[in-house]
Amino acid sequence: MNDIIERIDRKRRKILGTYVIGAIVFFGAWIVRFILKETGILTDPLDYAIAVPFAIGLIILLYSFGALIRVNKEIKTNPALQETLNDERLQLNTLLAFKYGFFAMLAGLAFFAVFNLFFPIKDTRSVFFGLLMVGAFSYNLKFYRLEKD
Amino acid sequence: MPRETLRNTLKVHRARMDWTQEELARRVGVTRKTINTIENGIFVPSTVLALKLARVFGVRVEDLFQLAE
């Protein structure tokens, strides 16, 4: 049983690390494209160049997300496993990461508000999408860092 | 107000019982990482977990955890 717990715990951390890398690449490409587009300096070659890391990030994200779902399913099949792998340290880290994600979303909102002062945002749908990404990815990034320490 | 830190003698008691972190984790129903972070003072356990730890070692909670002077 101990071996299974240790194996799943390590596997979960590893997948989370991959997810964070994917999220950084994906979001990095997205925010660069957003800024270039809104400031009017996005050219076709630049757009194609940004599409590469964007696609790579998306593939990594989807792959690790699927792997995380599979691990969580494995945990849910065994109540003893579920209790141990979701112990109080993990619950606290989840809470701290959620708080971090929330404040990151507020910071993102401030960023878009200031950006809008200098370059009025035309694509408002992207702002909502961007804020959701900031919140979700910041949550995962913080959670990964807490779990890694 | 200075932030108080919690010292613990978990490692000492674990060595006395000849238990690994994994063994102790199994006995109290947490992950090895949780035991590791408690031992290193990164994570402060709840009262329930502190009582469980004291129970498996057969000592009082005060013997396991002390406020640093």
Uncertain runs of chain B with pLDDT below 50, 5 residues or more? Answer: none
Oligomeric status of the shown chains?
heterodimer
End-to-end gap of chain B: 14 Å
The N- and C-terminal alpha carbons of chain A lie at a distance of 24 Å
Helix tally of chain B equals 5
The helix content of chain B, as a percent range, equals 55-70%
Describe this structure in words.
The complex is a heterodimer of chains A (149) and B (69). By secondary structure, chain A is mostly helical. Chain A has helices at 2-38, 44-76, 79-85, 88-118, 124-148. The longest helix of chain A has 37 residues, at 2-38. The two termini of chain A are 24 Å apart. Chain B contains 5 helices and 2 strands. Chain B has helices spanning 10-17, 21-28, 32-39, 47-57, 61-64; strands at 6-8, 65-67. A two-stranded antiparallel ribbon of chain B has the order 1-2. Chain B starts with 5 loop residues before the first strand and ends with a strand. The mean pLDDT of chain B is 92. Chains A and B meet through helix 1, helix 3 and helix 4 of A and helix 2 and helix 3 of B.
Give the SSE layout.
The complex is a heterodimer of chains A (149) and B (69).
Chain A: H1 2-38, H2 44-76, H3 79-85, H4 88-118, H5 124-148
Chain B: E1 6-8, H1 10-17, H2 21-28, H3 32-39, H4 47-57, H5 61-64, E2 65-67
Antiparallel strand pairs in B: 1-2
Helix pairs in contact in B: 2-3
Summarize the structure.
The complex is a heterodimer of chains A (149) and B (69). Chain A has five helices and no strands.
Key phrases:
heterodimer, A: 149 residues, mainly alpha, elongated, B: 69 residues, two-stranded antiparallel sheet
